[in-house]
Every structure is written in structure tokens, then in C-alpha cells.
Design a protein that fits this description.
By secondary structure, the chain is an all-alpha fold. The protein has helices at residues 2-27, 33-57, 67-91, 95-106, 110-122, 127-151, 160-169, 171-185, 191-215, 225-249, 254-264, 272-278, 283-310.
Length: 317
Amino acid sequence: MIDSLIVAANAVVPFLCYLMLGYATRAAKVVDEPFLNRLTKMIFTVMFPCMTFYNIYKAESGNMPSVKLVVFCVTSILIVEALLLYIIPKLVKENPRRGVIIQAIFRSNFVLFGLPLTISIFGEEKASVAAMMVTVVVSLYNVTSVIILEMFNGSGKTKMSELLIKLVKNPLLQGCAVGIVFYIAGWRLPECLAKPIGAFSDMTSPLALFALGGTLQFKAIKKNAKYLAPAMTTKLVILPLILLPIAYMIGLRDVELFLVITVFATPIASASYPMAMNMGGDGELAGQFVFLSTLISVFTLFVWIFALRQLGLIVTV
């Protein structure tokens, strides 16, 4: 049991430290909101592509996700979305809140949490499994999130061609695509280029969590508690509790079983906030989802990792 506690703590406590440092730095007025916004944009457009590229670029042939894992995650996400599209409009009256709540439940911060958690528990050699899943999951999130928010916005202006353009321009997916090309072609960069790209890759998660911590705010949470509590319970506890046994029954094991947790039990994607703000959703509610789920997930992820390790369902390095 002590070993399992240590593994879980080593995996999630660094995340809490990065978040707290960002929050404390903002509170001490060492950094301000405009700086953090620029930093976040730089991380998204420059450093995330380095991270996704590098983790695929350095992958070994045996460390790729199975077709079973990809199909399970894609199918599960689409089924969850379909159920939410049926249930949430019956429970919530306001359109701007409907889209935000649906997105909050199905869309995880898989990019920011999945890759570093996988590396922390299974080592660098398994990072490529998570990095390849980023390509699939982020593509699906981006397309379906826009469609769902548009459904409850009422403008109906977004076309499929526009969605495809947004996907092509997504820096995360660009990094993945280039990494896949280098991996398939067997191209190798000179060490003088590969080393700095690897260094930027290593910096990405701590810096992104620092920036996220600096943007966390406690505004008007109480008035939205009736939406926040059930949605986050569903997202961080109920969904993984349902999907994890199914994943095990169909044969997913070890790192692939753990990736099911990182897809469905990590906090709400930070990108859901600006997307809601710009697409007619309830931006205040979306921001609260990001803030609270990020803090709470540090503890729920600890419990999930501890339980999986204690049950012998994941074997750590």
C-alpha cells in the first residue's frame, strides 16, 4: 500500500505544485493577466507542438497505441456526447449553459495531463502511446466541441470546411502530423536540433500548468454550484467508474488502461473557456468548470492512480 501511495503522490503532487506556484505568483502580482495570456498563447502555438512532435519522433516501434484503444476511446466519447445531448437539454433551460455543461463533462485536458502523467508513471518510453492518442482525441474534441456549442448558439454559421481549416491550423495536431511523418519515414534530426526540441518538450507541461494556475479565479462560484457539482462528479468520478471496467473487459491493460483514465478523468480542458466565450456560451460558467475541476482532479487522480496500482492493474517503472 505504501508503494502505491508513493506512486500516486509522485504522479500528481508536481501538478499541484505547478498550479500553486502560478496562483501564488499571480496573487503576489509578480505576473499579471495580460502576461499570462501571452504566455498561454506562446505555450499553445510553440511549445505544445514541440512536445507532441518530439514524443512521437523518439518513439520505438513497439510503443504505439493499439487499434482497440483508439476505437474504444473514440466510441466512448461519441456515446457520452450523444447521451449528454439528449439529457442536458431536459435538465437545463438556458442554451448558453447547455453547451458549456455538455463540453465540461466530455472534454478533458488530455493534452496537459495525459502525457506527463503517463511519463511520470510508465517512463519516457511509453510517452509515444499518449502522444499518438493526443492526435486522435484532440481532433475529436475540437470538431465535436464546435458543433455542440454551435447547436446551442443558434447562429448555425460554422461550416464543415471551416472546421477542417481549424483542425489543419491547430498547432498540437501540426506537431503530431510532423512527428508521424518523421516516424514513418525514419528521418532523424541532427543532435544540435533534436536536443533543444527535447528541452522545449520537457518545459511544456510545467510551464502550461504554471500559467493555468495563474489564471484560476474564485468568482461567483456559489451561484453556479447546482451546475458545477453534478457535472464535475459525473466527469471526474462516474464516467471513469463506468468506462474503466468496460475497458478492462475488452482487454486493455497497463498503460492503455491508464490512458482511459487520462482521457476521461482529467480536468476540463482549459480551451473550453475561450471557446465558450467566443461562441455564445456561458463563459463565466466555463471558467469555473476549468478552475474547480483542475483543483479537484489533483485529488481524484491521486485516488484513481492509487486504486489502479493497489489492484495491480498498472505496473509502474
